[in-house]
Design goal:
Layout (H helix, E strand, L loop, with lengths): L8 E2 L2 E2 L18 E6 L5 E7 L6 H13 L4 E4 L2 H14 L10 E4 L1 H4 L7 H13 L4 H51 L4 H12 L8
Amino acid sequence: MKSGKDSALCGIAKFTAGREMSKKSGAQIDEEGIQVAVCRHGFLLRGLNHFRGEIYAYPMFLQKEMSKKANVDFFCMDVTCRYWLYLNKIAGGLPELLPLTEMRPFLSVMHAKAHTAKCEVNSFLSRAALVTRYMTKAGRVNMLTQQAMGWNRRKRDNLHQVLAHRYVKITERAKVEAASFSDFKKENNLDQETIQQRSQRKSTPQGVLKD
């Protein structure tokens, strides 16, 4: 594929992770980094080495591998806005990739906040990079494997606490939003029937509604 102009742009921001193509690094190292796929609970599921920087082919490979192992409905990435255009373009020439486009993509919080939010997994991987930077290839693979196994073990042991905390947080947030919605209906003199009618009109395709 020929790389399009400004393929890494999102508005006025440019991200080094948003590239279609990249030349091999001239540095005297085998890998430039690693990329991992995680579930919504933070478990490390798949990973790979970067040999040509942060290009779209790597997340596409991980996405394809995960689609074989599980029924994945949603796909989140820090540059999904640019990656999804690339995926649809590639799938146009490779029909076997079309099932990947049926997932529902969304942007991560890190992207939405211009990459200023703390990313727990990235922080962990950054520490791993410092430890393994000068290791041999075999030692690096072994160390990263041990770290990944330890990470998943900690996630598993703390999962009950995390889920309980999320449940309490979501329940409290739901109460706040319900109260806010109730106040909004009173201020605008709306009843539930009117709201449902307007929602149906918005969700109906053009040309279906008749007088």
